[in-house]
Amino acid sequence: MTMRNGANATLLVALLLALLPFAPSPVGADGSGDPAPASSSGGEYSDRQGNPTYKIDKDGTVDWYTSVGYLRYTANCMQCHGPDGLGSSFAPSLVDALQTLGYERFLDTVTNGKKTVNTSQELVMPAFGVNPNVMCYVEAIFIYLRARSDGALGRGPPQKSAPRPAGYSATENACMG
Fold first, then answer.
1. How wide is the angle at C-alpha 126 spanned by C-alphas 130 and 45, nearest 5°?
2. H-type alpha helices, the chain
3. Are 168 and 68 in contact (CB under 8 A)?
4. pTM above 0.90?
5. Which segments show compositional bias classed as Low complexity (predicted)?
6. Domains of the chain, residue spans
7. Sheet with 44-46, side-by-side order of all strands
C-alpha cells in the first residue's frame, strides 16, 4: 500500500489503533506502573504512585503481605480465577489482567463486582465489598497477584516469608470484627 494521500494514511492509523488492544503486552508490564517499593509502613510496601506493591529479597523471601495475599487469594478467589491467578473456565486470568489493570480498578471491581453480557457469554464477578474475608485482605491479594503478574513470583506458595509485622494481628482483628 502506498501512502500517496491523506486518506490512506488515516486508514492505516485507524487500522493500527484498532489492532492495538490485541498486541502482546511487554514482559513485566504492570497496570499500576513500576512495582519497585518506594516506601514502607508496618511491613507493607508502596510504589512511587502509592499503590500497594511487593518486596522480594534476593534469597526469595517475600514480604508478609505477599505471603498473606497468597493464602487469602487461595481461600477466596481461586475457586473462580484458578490456581495462582491463572484463570479457569469460570473466570479470567488475573495474572494477565494485572498487566493493564491498576490498583484502583482492581479495588473497584472486587468491591462492587462486574457484569459483562454479550450474545455469546455472561460474565459475572460478584461484589465482595461487605465480605471481611476478602476486603480485610484486598491489598494483600492485590500485592500477591501483582508479584505473579510481573513474573517476580512463581506458582505455588512462597517458600520464605518475612515475619509478621508488629501490630498486624491487632489490625487484622479490628477489621474482621
1. 65
2. 6-19, 64-76, 78-81, 94-97, 103-112, 132-135, 138-149, 168-176
3. no
4. no
5. 29-43
6. 26-100+137-166
7. 39-41, 44-46, 52-53
